[in-house]
Amino acid sequence: EVQLVESGGGSVQAGGSLRLSCAASGYTYSSNLMCWFRQAPGKEREGVAAIYTGTGLTYYADFVNGRFTISRDRAKNTVYLEMNSLTPEDTATYSCAARTSQTWLIKSWPLAGIYDTWGQGTQVTVSS
User: Apex CA 92: angle with CA 65 and CA 112, to 5°?
Assistant: First the structure.
């Protein structure tokens, strides 16, 4: 069974940066879809960014506005989310998810229902 473990969360001041990591273990396909989600207290879970590991093609939510970068290191079986220019509105629990199935629709990447495996999550807190 595929297992995902996030790390890199913490507390930063507004305008600061964090890099989140999602390490995958167990059986993995050569190509799959990986996505970072976040959920703030009292709000719905929302997709932040996704990457197709086969080619490195990336997708971002509109609210990212160029501040975040998703990437992968296939040798380490790890996906990263580099977050810059953080604001208090970015405060949330960030989780990574994987779709191990080999087919998906581009427009569906932000939908939690298409993902098979989820990590425990890592807390990001941005203070003003």
Answer: 80
**What is the token pair recorded at 113?**
């229902």
- Check residue 53 and give its pLDDT: 85
**Which distant-in-sequence residues (6+ apart) come within 8 Å of 75 by Cβ?**
none
pLDDT tens digits along 34-71: 999 999 999 999 999 999 988 899 999 999 999 999 99
In the 8-state DSSP scheme, what is residue 53? Answer: T
How many degrees, rounded to 5, is the angle at CA 64 between CA 61 and CA 69?
Answer: 95
Please tell me the distance from the alpha carbon of residue 25 to that of residue 27, in angstroms, as a whole number: 7
User: In Å, how far are 2, 53, 70, 71 from 120, measured between CA atoms?
Assistant: 13, 21, 19, 20
Let me know: does 21 contact 82? Beta carbons within 8 Å. Answer: no
In 10 A of CB 101, how many CB atoms? 12
| 73: region left, alpha or beta (phi > 0 left; psi from -120 to 50 alpha) | beta
| Euclidean distance between CA atoms 15 and 126, whole angstroms | 9
Hey, what are 102's tokens?
A: 């080999």
Count other C-beta atoms under 10 Å from residue 68's C-beta.
Answer: 23
